[in-house]
Amino acid sequence: MKHELPVANHVISLISELQNAGFEAYIVGGAIRDLLLGRTPKDYDISTSATPEEVRGVFGRRIARIIGKRFRLVHVQYGGELFEVSTFRKAPTQGQLRPDGRPAKDLPEHMILSDNEFGSAEEDAWRRDFTVNALFYDPVKSELIDYTGQGIGDIRAGIVRAIGNPKLRFEEDPVRMLRALKLVGQYDFALDCATENALFNSLELIRHAAPSRLSLELEKILSSSYGDKHILAFHDYGLLAYYLPELEEAWGTPAGMFALNLLNERNCRVAEGLYRNSISLAMATLALPFVELECDHGPGELWEMSPESTARIRSVLDRLFRPQTMMNRMTESALRVLILQALFADPENLDRMIETKSYAHARELLLIRTAVMDGDVDAAARLWPAGSSGRRRSGKRPRRRRNPKEGKKSDA
Fold it and tell me: Among 24, 38, 306, 307, which has the highest number of CB atoms less than 10 A from its own CB?
């Protein structure tokens, strides 16, 4: 059907290049959902009939890089933005073999271990997880395609509906449970009855998901400005006990409530453009009340710095995010941010802190804590001014030089 959506010109240009080379190409997934809801997409995912090698042939090796093993796709640097370009896929052949050909023991019968069987656009739509994620949009022809016939209606009604048998969908890929509940938290959607029942009966399957994928999902949650809403949805549906059991155990306690309030304030500041979406700062924000508790203090009561406090902070960071494994650089950054918190008790520490590597993040956490405790944020900001390492010159944050091989990731 014809449908005009406000797609950025460089995205249309990228689609046009693939189509002019003789391939089908569409915007897929979350970007279409956001556009239909009147939101600005965080990014655009592209799907095409071109194989990864053919995509690289269209754009050249300098700006198109093939990545992934379980799911091969192409990172294309275009118009100053990084795009993920995938090839249309069909439902994979069932079978309990790992990609290396060895039997996959003790895994759900229908779990997908390899997903690189190319197919048509319609086959690709029907193998996707939820109807709201299965829309295809051609911005060149202004054509919106809803192969399931339910995606547009479900977006308008705010419904998360699994495509096909929801129990099978979650068994094929348990990470889909996380994605379903992220839609619930971020968009205030509701699961349809069949999908909800299947999710409740499939929670333990999350233990079988690849640890690297679960950790990547946590990084996305922490970098998002909706992370507190995601965590709330996980708790409401019982998934948090499997995903972040330490946080679930603390639910409803003073420390647990303070942690969620801090994360909510951090997310509001990110959404308002007051600070960047650092994953390590989000880790430190969520961990702060538990560090206070570990150091025998109540919510909002800072501890005194000592060799023992550093070890206690590290212990909290290790326990709180277990069984997920965060990147070491993020954990070390969060550790430094939390260590510096104790020094904010005395303004005379300013000179020794202001040029330290983590001062900008630590200062932001101070402002977050002050806001949640109904303190004077402006006074705290004046007392602890931004240092040269964290100061925005002419209203702009200094750009970090990125290695092209790094791909797309959030600020640590």
Answer: 24
